[in-house]
Amino acid sequence: MSETVVACPLCSGMPSQLFDRRTFEGRVVDNRLCLTCGFVYQSPRMTASETEAFYASEYRQLYQGSNSPNPKDLTIQALRAESLVSFFGEQSSEVKRVLDIGSSAGLLLQAFTRVFDSQVVGIEPGLAYREYAQHNGLKVYESLTELESAGESPFDLVCMAHVLEHLPDPLSYLISLREKALAGKGWLLLEVPNLYMHDSFEVAHLSAFSAHTLRQMVEKAGYQVMKLEKHGRPRSSLLPYYLLMLCQPNLIKAGRNIHPERLVLIKRRIGLFQRRKVNRIFPSLAWKSLPEERGR
Predict the structure, then answer these.
(1) What is the pLDDT of residues 224-247, one digit of tens each?
(2) What are the sequence ranges of the domains in the chain?
């Protein structure tokens, strides 16, 4: 049984229209366009209980072919960690404590320990990945609720790489992070798929962000955007599959009015046309294969 999203997760507007319909691994996935602000979100979608069961038993197998870390997945995580740490830049004096939400096998936590000598903590709901990280000496909790119960002090940096698009209420989650987990002058590091280049529409992706709507979301949640980059790392040196953003709390403008995005469908079509064109001309640069994928 699925649930219908009545109000837009970004602006709470109710008018919407079908934006994309496809079958993903045997499941029909509908995404709708908010006619008030231009945000794209999945509806209908799995209920809370279905989502919990999905992540407990199906998610890793469906997306990676294994419930436990495998060489391909670890390689991608290592390359992504390198990209995220590099983007974060020269903030070492301000990142004594780092929280990675969706920490998976813990490679980003290890990178921050290695580069910035930070105290690191993770949140990872997947049992096999959490145990893998814990076996490597990392402190990893199952959920934000468990972390809060443990009495952890605030963090100088909170990372969420490819997590925000999975959340049923991303706005409330960002507000909760600012209020409960982030230090007053701390940093929030986000990475999500780019609606105008990435396929985006998967059963686990409940929101599809453009650079505009991602900015609107974090500003409404009480942050100011310090840096935003469109990029393809580690998969492409030509196509911006991902959006990478660095923010800090900004309570003065929290809850600000949303500036609608227009021509969303046209921008999506133009982006995917450019992607197909680049893939035809420069296939090896448009999507780089990993060592584990070569020779198959």
Answers:
(1) 999 999 999 999 999 999 999 999
(2) 48-96+105-150
